[in-house]
DNA sequence: GGCTGTGAAATGGTTCACAGCG
DNA sequence: CGCTGTGAACCATTTCACAGCC
């Protein structure tokens, strides 16, 4: 899907240009690798073929190989990829080796879910601050972190060295939250609110709209059930079962 | 994604083939239109140009026109689109005119957030059932609906005529949740768990991985900050110059 | 032999630009 | 004249297929 909000995307020649779609999958590979490492800690060879990795991540093996080729040449022909090496290499590429501090604005159910989300740490993500406007929530502890007041975003973000912001407020507060984060120097924002949010050109904004995800399903569902019309004898002999949907994307 | 299998080309121009990316945006347009209708209920002309609509949805106007052209010809040249007509038409295309019943498995923070999500109804989505394994949660009421036990999915889904399932359980329970939903006859599933879920070929599975979204931001963030320290190579063409105006302007 | 790395082809999606209608 | 609808150009991504290395 794609709810894009124009992004500059400087075309300057940089070391290696990794396609947007590849970045999303690299994160999935990293996760699959971490899982594999745990499982095969006792036995196994310590390496995996592109086929195995692809299955574990839910993608096509050719896609995986091409994705990895953007990082460099880390596979061994005839054998596969060393799990440990590849984990480190992808982690490096994604910047997961160095922690990123995240500020979360809006500590409702969704915010709390995010604050308690496991597996951030292993990917270099650290929730550094929580904010809310509700006096009842300010001062409380969620996921081990004390909720601070919305008005202190600038101050706290500076103190906690936050570089990424997440907006999980109700819709009407989203723009204000974005503004506050931007003022605080945050240049990467993930928003869970529908609706347009305006940010300066140098700020990276991603959006995830839960209702849209469901509506896409509803669309397909409608199509499926509406198929009673013609007795076409092609019952979705679809080959693969795999399915990876990076969901909402921005960045054109 | 599979929606367009090789169709025998039926004579009538009934079901046009709508691209996946367009479907996602149609949902966004629908939302923008509903908002517009509310705002302009008192005054305004009752129609909007592709430019206005595009701005309200955060996309390019050419993209919007092309998207709408898949539905048919509903605009008026020299004028724009009638808001009410277009709303109805997009709603029809998306299947939002007829309600879809949704079952939600896993009523933790995330599940509760979804159950309380406003704006589902206006888009034809109705939460019909909530499930959890936790005895403490079963029997409780969330978002006006009583939480039922995981084991009764098949029974309750049939009773409530559920066609879409949402998985918001902890990771380890995800596959079991999917299996249960599939057994209950659900053929469209949205999962918020990372990791691979296997479903039969005729089941539509979408995934949203919160950690991946953040990791993508972290990647860009790493690039941004690395760019400042890397003042070599590029022949002084690197500054902060964003000549491209993003101009995500929201008008009228 | 098996598997990676990668050009090249195929597919899907976005943007341009303009003809044509209201 | 303004704005839609759309072919055509453009760009991104996926998939194929195979050469080359282990």
UniProtKB/TrEMBL annotation, chains A, B:
Any single GO CC term annotated in Swiss-Prot or TrEMBL for this entry: cytoplasm
InterPro entries: CoA-bd (IPR003781), NAD(P)-bd_dom_sf (IPR036291), Rex_actinobacterial-type (IPR058236), Rex_DNA-bd_C_dom (IPR009718), Tscrpt_rep_Rex (IPR022876), WH-like_DNA-bd_sf (IPR036388), WH_DNA-bd_sf (IPR036390)
Keywords: Cytoplasm, DNA-binding, NAD, Repressor, Transcription, Transcription regulation
Annotated CoA-binding domain residues: 95-196
Claim: NAD is one of the keywords in the record: yes
Residues bound to NAD(+): 106-111
Encoding gene, per UniProt annotation: rex
Protein name, entry field: Redox-sensing transcriptional repressor Rex
GO biological process: negative regulation of DNA-templated transcription; response to redox state
Subunit (UniProt): Homodimer.
Any one Pfam family match given in the protein's UniProt record, by short name: Put_DNA-bind_N
Stated family: Belongs to the transcriptional regulatory Rex family.
Principal localisation: cytoplasm
PANTHER family: REDOX-SENSING TRANSCRIPTIONAL REPRESSOR REX (PTHR35786), REDOX-SENSING TRANSCRIPTIONAL REPRESSOR REX 1 (PTHR35786:SF1)
SUPFAM superfamilies for the chain: NAD(P)-binding Rossmann-fold domains, Winged helix' DNA-binding domain
Cellular location(s): Cytoplasm
Annotated GO MF terms: DNA binding; DNA-binding transcription factor activity
Annotated region (Disordered), positions in chain: 227-252
General function of this protein: Modulates transcription in response to changes in cellular NADH/NAD(+) redox state.
Highest rank taxon of the organism: Bacteria
């Amino acid at each position: 899907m794609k709810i894009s909000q124009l992004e500059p995307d400087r075309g300057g020649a940089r070391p290696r240009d990794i396609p947007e779609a590849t970045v999303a999958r690299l994160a999935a590979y990293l996760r699959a690798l971490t899982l594999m490492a745990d499982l095969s800690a006792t036995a196994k060879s310590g390496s995996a073929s592109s086929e195995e990795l692809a299955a574990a991540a839910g993608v096509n093996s050719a896609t995986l190989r091409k994705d990895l080729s953007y990082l460099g040449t880390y596979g061994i022909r005839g054998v596969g990829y060393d799990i440990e090496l590849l984990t480190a290499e992808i982690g490096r590429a994604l910047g997961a080796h160095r922690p990123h501090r995240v500020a979360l604005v809006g500590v409702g159910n969704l915010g709390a879910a995010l604050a308690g989300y496991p597996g951030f740490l292993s990917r270099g993500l650290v929730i550094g601050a929580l904010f809310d406007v509700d006096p009842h929530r300010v001062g409380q502890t969620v996921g081990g972190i004390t909720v601070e007041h919305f008005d202190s975003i600038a101050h706290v973000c500076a103190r906690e060295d936050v570089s990424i912001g997440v907006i999980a407020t109700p819709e009407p507060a989203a723009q204000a939250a974005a503004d506050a984060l931007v003022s605080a120097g945050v240049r990467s924002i993930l928003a869970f609110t529908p609706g347009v949010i305006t940010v300066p050109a140098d700020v990276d904004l991603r959006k995830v709209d839960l209702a849209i995800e469901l509506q896409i399903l509803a669309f397909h569902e409608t199509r499926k059930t509406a198929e009673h019309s013609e007795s076409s004898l092609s019952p979705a002999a679809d080959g693969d079962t795999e399915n990876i949907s990076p969901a909402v994307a921005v960045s054109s």
